[in-house]
Structures are given as C-alpha cells and as structure tokens.
C-alpha cells in the first residue's frame, strides 16, 4: 500500500528510462544517503565505523568491480585480490614519490594502473572463455602476488616487505596514517564509494551495460549484431580493475594503515567472488548485500554467541565462517542463483501489492 | 649481452656441467608432477562422468589425508583407519552428490563450478573444525610405506632418490593403468563415458545417473586418498589451498579436461618444468617462481591451443 | 511475382552474391561449391532437407563461419570471407534458429541492444549519464518504440525475455534484427514451432518489413506454403549442394527438388 506505482505516469522516454522511476525508490535512496552521511557519524561509535562500515563500503566497491566483470559481462575472474593489490601498491609508490599531491588524487589514479594491468591480463579473453579464462586470471593473481614480494621497489625496499601508510592531509584534516580519525576516513570512503557506485549505475543502465550483458548472454549473437567482442571485454576488464584498484588503495590507505603481500592473496579473490554470488550476479544492489553478509558474518559470529551464553573460540569462529559461507554459496546457487538481490526484488514485488497476496 | 648469456646459455651450461644435479632436479620434478597428475586424475574422472568440474577435488585430497591421520591419532589401528577413511570418502561422495549435484543438474557449467568452490570452503571449515588447523604428520610407517633413500653414483656425481618417491611413482602408475582399463573395458566404464557425453541420452538408455555418479565420486575419493597419503608423506598435512587444488588446474589445461593420459602427461610437464625453471632460472629473478610458472604456461597454452594437448577441439554451433 | 499478389517492391541489382563457396568441418562437408545471388528488395528463400547446409550458408554470409573456398560479394565489395563486424555494419542482420535472445534482459533492452551499432556517445558521457548519452538513449528509444508498435509487442516491453512464450520471443528477435536497420535481413526458420495463426502473423510481418522498409530478405523455411507465398525466388540445397534456383513455381516442378525434398503431392 505504501509502495505503489499507481498514479505515477511517465510522460516521456527520458523519465521512463530513469534509473529509479518509482518515487518511493527515489525517496528510499535519499533516506539511505542521509543515514549514511549524517546518521552514522552522529550516532555510531568508533568501533562500528572502523570495524564494520569502512570495510563494508570498501568491499562493496570491490564487489561492484568484480560484478561488472563477472556478473554483467560473464567473465569469471579469480584475480580480484591481485588487482586490488595493484591499486594499493600503485597508490603507495605514487604518494611516496610525490608526497605533496593530494592523496585522494593518487587513490583515483592508482585505479588507472590497476585498469592497465587488468586489460593486459584480459587480452587472452579474445580466445579463451569461461572456466579457462578463470585459469588465466589465476595466472594474473599468482604472478602479481609474487611481484608484490619480489620487487622491492614496490615497497620502497622496506626490510619487512610491508608498506606503511604515511600521514596525509586534506584541507588541513589528517586523513591517512595512525592519527586519522575513524569518522574522517569513513566520510571519505563513503563519498568515493557513493560517487563510483553512481557512475557504475549509469554505465550499466546505458549502452555499455547492454553490450556487456549481450556478450554475457550470447556472445555469438552479440558479435553478429556488430558488437566487437574484444574491445567490449577489455573495457569490462579495465573498468572492473579500476574499481578493484581503488578499493585496494582505500583498503590500505583508509583502513588497514599498512599492508603486506598476503593481504591480496587468492583468498581475497574468493571472498569477493562469494560476495557477488550470494549478493546477486549482475546487480549493483547485490554487491552491497553480498558484501554485507560475507563481511558481517564473522563479526556476528564473534559477538553474538557470547551474548547468548555460548562463547566460541576465535579459531572456531573462523572455521564456522568458512563452513557457513560455503554452505550459503551452495544454497544460493541451488535455491536462488540470482542471489539476495533477487530476493530483495521479490520482496519489493510483494510490497507493491501488500496487504493483498497478489 | 651479459643478460642474454644469463638467460639463454648459462642455465644449459649448468645443466651440462653438473648432470647429477640436473637428473636430481628432474627426478624431483617428476615426483611432484606425478602428484599433480593424481589430483588432476580425480578431476578428470568426475568431469568425464558428470561434466562437473569439481574444484573441491583438492580439498578432498586434504580431507582424506586428515581423516586418516585423525583416526589413527584417535587410536584406530592403521589399516582399519584406512578402511574407515575409504568409507568416509564414500559417504562424502554420496552426500555431495545428493545435496549439491542433484539439485543443480540442469544448470550451466559455470554455476556447477562455483558450487564446488562453495563446497571447498565448506569442507575447509569443517575439516579444520573437526581436526584442528595445525599441520599433522602422515602415518607413513604404519602404512608400511618405505622410508629412507636410495643413493647411487651416476652422471659424475651422486643421485639420491627417496624410496617414498619411488613408491609414489609406482603406485600412481598402477592407479592410472587400472583406471584406463576400467574406463575402456568394463561395462561401468562405458556407462561413464556415455554419461559424460550426454546426460539425457544416457538416461534414455537406462543408465542410472545417480549410481554412476556415486561410483565416480567414490573412485575420485579413492584417488584423493592415495594422493593425500603420498602428498602428506612428503610434507605435512595442512590446508594450503592454493597449492593443492589450484596447481592441478594448469595440469588440466595442458592435458585436456577429459583425458586420463593427458592428466599424467600434463602433470609431468608441469612438475618437471616448474622444478627446472625454478632451479635454473629462478635465481635470476628472485626465486619463488613456482608459485606462478605453471599458470603462465597454462596461459600460453590456452592462447594457442585452448583444448590442451589431448582434449577435443571445441566447435561452436549457432 | 509473389503468389500473394500484394504490392510489389521493385527488385533491383544484386545485393549479395556467393560464388563457389565451400565449407567443411573436419571431414564433414557442410557446403560444396554453392553459388547464388540475392537481389535488392526481393524475398529469397533457401530451402532443403535438414542438414542441407542452409544455416551454415547464413553463417557464412554473416561471417561467423569462414569458407575454405569461394567468395562473397556484398554491396559491390568482394571478399574471401566476411567478418561479423563488417557484416553488421554493412547492414546484414539476422535471426537464429534457436532464438538467440539475451536472456538476462527485457524485451525492450534486447531491441535497444540492436541499436548499439548506431550509438556513439562516448564513455565519459555514459559515466555521468547526462547530455549526449541521455539524448542518444531517448532518440534511439523512439526508433525502438516504432519497431515495438510495428510488431505489436507493447505489453511485453519490460518482461525478461526468458519468460516469454516462444512465439513472442521470435517476434522480439525479429525486432532486435530490425533495430539494426538492415539492408539484408537473414531469417533462420522464423516460423519454426508456430501454429497457423502465429505463422500468419509472422508472414505478415515479413512482408511488411519488405514492403515498408524495403529490406531485402533471405529466409530459411520448411513450411512450403509460406515459401511459395512469400518468396520471389528460391534456392534449394541438398547435402551442401545447390540443386535448384529460380521462382517458386519453377522450383516446385523441378524433378531433383521433388525427389530430394518435396515428395510428390505438392
């Protein structure tokens, strides 16, 4: 009864093609943005912001990146961790070489480095498809991981092979380094993620999104319709790696504060892949939902059972996280391959006619 | 000039001047290759029979090894533990078929592939939960696997081969031969090949898919157990995900997903290639190259021959 | 002169011709030394028993299969093999035997996808969805809506195509091909699996496309009634070889065709 389209007529193609044609959706987005930008800093405590919201946003961004490549274009990639790493290390080199340039600029610029590497490793997609392409992305993952250790120049010859984030400021406020406040970092991450999500949404709702989905659904027909496969696929690799690279830079610079090569291992790749499988392949909303579920799960497991009187070992929490994640993957693939996003859609559908059953 | 010498000449010179080292490295590579091949074999079996690319094969290897050791450490005598582990693997195969595969029968391959990822993660968590995450020692003595080394003089120097490695090579060869015969000569083997070609067609001639799948998963479980024992005997039994399942993937690329001899040849090429590359060229670029060498080879192969050495050419129809 | 006696489109010069084209897959000869042409404005039928090489022929024209021998001349330009991109940009569109729609998208999006080759706004405008990008979307939406009106599929615009019944899927696929504003439209068994009413609708659409847009049509079809009524000329293939080429009446009476394909009582 609240969520209804009746009475909302579209009188032009422009309004009909809008991303959120239904008024209630627009209001909903607005409310979410208000809560995110104003509510969380005001109400949330440092722990919530630092341990939950910031990484959730960063992983959502990485999930969007992978979703563009795997969900929308149908190219399975297991190299997400490495592409995130390229972004992080690129940002590190850029800011240590040119410390006076604004760090935000370097965060965005590092995305381009990641995009370039992504395109390079995406070239094989001209001849290889599906599962085989996944193997090629594994080559990228392991090779780049090796580079992160074996090229000392990348971590400025630091003895421990780790990178440490230097302090940087924006308009006089410290935003990176140990003295940056959680709130500041949160707002910056939130802004970047919001803008990039908006852009991703614009792309997938337009010509490029259709081209990607065409390549995913039936690349032969797409080719015969004049869509050039290689440039389309490479564009997907480029944009996807850009997003993952920025996510990686944000991960290191605005959350961890430092990193070693193990941060960007194959496990990261799998984690992000699981996020988009559970959240919904081919859905931006799904990227957020999946990131939330996968990321929040271990936190919930760590804190809720003790409150219910069942304290769990840290190791047990990790084991249970693996088990539940694996089980969820299998469950979703069987029951609802379109993930949480589809469940959400079904829910909205029911809301449309509520309180009537159909 | 110096660089060119270092890359193109020096390694071969080294191989020539110290042939015993070369043969030693070759041997180690071969043994590694045999183990990769065994894992790949498990993949090929399941893929041939059900068309499912069971990414979880790697974790089944670890799981089998862990179960064996876990049972022994809990007091069960070695050979009984072996038998029980086989039973456990069978139960695992049965459960996986029922819970994961059956509901996904008509889904596209990529979905099945991803489901086996999920299965892998689940088994990792479950295995660590039941057996604990610390590395364990394989019960080689109790299984009467040979210990010690065989040393002899050859090629101007000394070569020492681990007896265990020799045993591994022999056992692997027997398994491969057995499987090859099974596939081509027996009724069930033929049924398996029918199922691999087309599920619907096999059903229509009365082949019971479920029965076949259970048999195949069990066979794969057996292969996994043997692999697990061999692997665990050479190094500890632990959950290094990337080494186990993922390394077998380049082997499959080389050998083709559906070929048993391909898995063997692919395994040997990757195993030997990896070892030689790391030993002779690795030091030039900082070492640790065996992390990615296999994958880069696979990548190069895919660019020129996507179906692998032995696989069938893929022809697309509109 | 078509059997329907409807308004005749002036049939012009040769638009596309294939000369001595041969295609083999390993040992299987799909097409052997086939030559025929298609004139501008006509409706050309390609018929023959299953496995005759008809779809392979279309795939060759599209550039999806590359013949080992022979040449293809399209709009005056001769090539040894067509490339899919050149075919599409040159104005060749097609539908497929097994409905190759993009299942993850709605009917509207599928047809809009057909406009891709006409859309040029660059990446930057796409990113911010403003200015040239939105203008282009709206402009092309107009054209797509014309096609939707023509094919009478207004109600199913927003339905994901996977959920549509077969007949409607075929119509959407036709719409997607039309969105490319093709000069040559290749239809691979557009009436397969349809009942009489649906066939009549589709036949009417095919004729209208030819009349209204002036599109040249090459059509693979098994229903002899449709072929005889709709087409101007017919090519008959059997086991990859051309066994007849001419007007529907001539072909109907050709002994070789009767033996291979038609049987007697036609």
Structure overview:
- The complex is a heterotrimer of chains A (358), B (318) and C (266).
- Chain A is mainly α.
- Chain A has a single domain, classed as ABC transporter involved in vitamin B12 uptake, BtuC, CATH 1.10.3470.
- Chain A is built from 13 helices and 4 strands.
- A two-stranded antiparallel sheet of chain A has the order 1-4. A two-stranded antiparallel ribbon of chain A has the order 2-3.
- In chain A, helix 3 runs antiparallel to helix 9 and helix 10 (266-279) crosses helix 11.
- By secondary structure, chain B is mostly helical.
- Chain B has a domain at 28-240.
- In chain B, a hairpin with a 2-residue loop joins strand 1 (149-154) and strand 2 (157-162).
- In chain B, helix 3 (57-73) packs antiparallel against helix 4, helix 6 (163-185) crosses helix 7 and helix 6 packs antiparallel against helix 9 (209-234).
- The model of chain B has no long low-confidence stretch (mean pLDDT 78).
- Chain C has a 6-stranded mixed sheet with strand order 6-7-8-3-9-10, sandwiched between helices. Chain C has a 4-stranded antiparallel sheet with strand order 2-1-4-5, covered by helices on one side.
- In chain C, helix 3 (107-114) runs parallel beside helix 6 (166-179).
- Chain C is globular and about 60 Å long.
- At the A-B interface, helix 6, helix 10 and helix 12 of A face helix 5, helix 10 and helix 12 of B.
């Amino acid at each position: 009864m609240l969520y209804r389209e009746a009475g909302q007529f579209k009188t032009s193609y422009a309004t009909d093609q809008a991303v959120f044609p239904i008024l209630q959706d627009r209001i909903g987005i607005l409310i979410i943005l208000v809560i995110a930008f104003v509510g969380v800093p005001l109400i949330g405590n440092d722990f919530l912001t630092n341990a939950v919201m910031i990484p959730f946003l960063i992983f959502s961004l990485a999930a969007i990146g992978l979703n563009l490549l795997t969900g929308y274009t149908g190219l399975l990639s297991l190299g997400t961790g490495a592409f995130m790493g390229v972004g992080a290390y690129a940002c590190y080199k850029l800011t240590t070489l040119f410390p006076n340039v604004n760090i935000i600029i370097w965060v965005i610029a590092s995305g381009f480095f990641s995009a370039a590497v992504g395109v390079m490793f995406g070239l094989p997609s001209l001849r290889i498809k599906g599962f085989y392409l996944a193997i090629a992305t594994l080559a990228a993952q392991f090779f780049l991981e090796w580079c992160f250790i074996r090229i000392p120049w990348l971590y400025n010859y630091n003895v421990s092979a780790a990178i440490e984030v230097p302090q940087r400021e924006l308009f006089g406020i410290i935003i990176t380094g140990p003295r940056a406040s959680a709130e500041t970092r949160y707002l910056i991450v939130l802004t970047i993620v919001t803008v990039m999500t908006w852009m991703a949404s614009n792309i997938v709702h337009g010509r490029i999104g259709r081209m990607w989905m065409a390549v995913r659904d039936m690349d032969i027909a797409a080719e015969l319709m004049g869509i050039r496969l290689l440039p389309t696929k490479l564009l997907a690799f480029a944009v996807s790696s850009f997003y993952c690279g920025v996510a990686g830079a944000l991960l290191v610079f605005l959350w961890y504060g430092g990193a070693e090569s193990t941060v960007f291992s194959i496990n990261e790749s799998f984690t992000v892949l699981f996020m988009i499988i559970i959240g919904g392949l081919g859905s931006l909303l799904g990227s957020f939902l999946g990131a939330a579920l996968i990321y929040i799960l271990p936190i919930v497991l760590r804190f809720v059972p003790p409150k219910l009187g069942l304290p769990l070992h840290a190791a047990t929490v990790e084991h249970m996280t693996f088990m539940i994640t694996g089980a969820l993957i299998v469950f979703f693939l069987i029951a609802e391959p379109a993930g949480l996003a589809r469940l959400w859609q079904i829910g909205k559908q029911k809301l449309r006619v509520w309180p009537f059953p159909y | 000039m110096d660089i060119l010498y270092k890359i193109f000449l020096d390694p071969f010179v080294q191989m020539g001047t110290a042939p015993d080292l070369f043969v030693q490295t070759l041997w180690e590579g071969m043994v590694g290759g045999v183990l990769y091949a065994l894992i790949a074999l498990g993949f090929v079996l399941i893929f041939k029979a059900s068309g499912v690319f069971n990414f979880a094969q790697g974790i089944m290897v670890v799981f089998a090894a862990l179960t064996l050791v876990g049972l022994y450490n809990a007091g069960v005598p070695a050979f009984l533990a072996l038998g029980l582990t086989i039973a456990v693997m069978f139960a695992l195969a049965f459960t996986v078929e029922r819970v994961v595969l059956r509901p996904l029968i008509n889904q596209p391959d990529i979905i099945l592939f991803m489901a086996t990822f999920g299965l892998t993660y689940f088994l990792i968590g479950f295995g660590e939960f039941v057996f604990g995450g610390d590395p364990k020692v394989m019960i080689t003595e109790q299984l009467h696997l040979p210990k010690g080394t065989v040393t002899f003089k050859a090629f101007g120097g000394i070569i020492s081969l681990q007896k265990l490695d020799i045993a591994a090579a022999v056992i692997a060869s027997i398994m491969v031969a057995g499987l090859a015969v099974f596939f081509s000569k027996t009724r069930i083997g033929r049924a398996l090949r029918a199922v691999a070609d087309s599920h619907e067609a096999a059903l229509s001639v009365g082949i019971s898919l479920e029965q076949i799948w259970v048999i195949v998963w069990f066979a794969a479980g057996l292969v996994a157990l043997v692999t697990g024992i061999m692997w665990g005997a050479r190094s500890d039994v632990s959950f290094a995900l990337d080494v186990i399942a993922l390394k077998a993937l380049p082997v499959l690329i080389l050998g083709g997903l559906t070929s048993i001899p391909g898995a063997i040849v692919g395994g040997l090429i990757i195993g030997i290639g990896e070892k030689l590359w790391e030993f002779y060229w690795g030091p030039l670029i900082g070492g640790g190259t065996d992390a990615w060498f296999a994958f880069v080879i696979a990548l190069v192969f895919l660019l020129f021959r996507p179906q692998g050495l032995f696989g069938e050419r893929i022809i697309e129809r509109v | 002169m078509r059997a329907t006696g409807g308004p005749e489109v002036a049939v012009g010069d040769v638009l596309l011709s294939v000369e001595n084209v041969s295609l083999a897959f390993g040992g299987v000869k799909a097409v052997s030394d086939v030559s025929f042409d298609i004139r501008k404005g006509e409706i050309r039928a390609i018929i023959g028993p299953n496995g005759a090489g008809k779809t392979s022929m279309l795939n060759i024209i599209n550039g999806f299969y590359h013949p080992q021998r022979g040449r293809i001349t399209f709009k005056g330009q001769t090539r040894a093999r067509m490339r899919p991109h050149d075919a599409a940009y040159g104005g060749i569109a097609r539908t497929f035997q097994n409905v190759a729609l993009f299942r993850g998208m709605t009917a509207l999006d599928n047809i809009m996808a057909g406009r891709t080759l006409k859309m040029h706004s660059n990446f930057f405008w796409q990113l911010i969805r403003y200015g040239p990008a939105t203008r282009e979307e709206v402009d092309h939406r107009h054209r797509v809506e014309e096609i939707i009106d023509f094919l009478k599929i207004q109600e199913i615009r927003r339905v994901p195509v996977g959920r549509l019944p077969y007949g409607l899927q075929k119509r959407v696929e036709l719409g997607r091909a039309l969105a490319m504003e093709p000069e040559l439209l290749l239809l691979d068994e557009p009436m397969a699996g349809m009942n009489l009413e649906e066939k009549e609708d589709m036949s009417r659409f095919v004729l209208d496309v030819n009349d209204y847009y002036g599109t040249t049509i090459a059509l693979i079809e098994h229903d002899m009634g449709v072929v005889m009524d709709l087409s101007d000329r017919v090519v008959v293939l059997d086991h990859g070889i051309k066994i007849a080429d001419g007007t529907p009446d001539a072909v109907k009476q050709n002994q070789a065709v009767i033996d291979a394909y038609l049987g007697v009582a036609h």
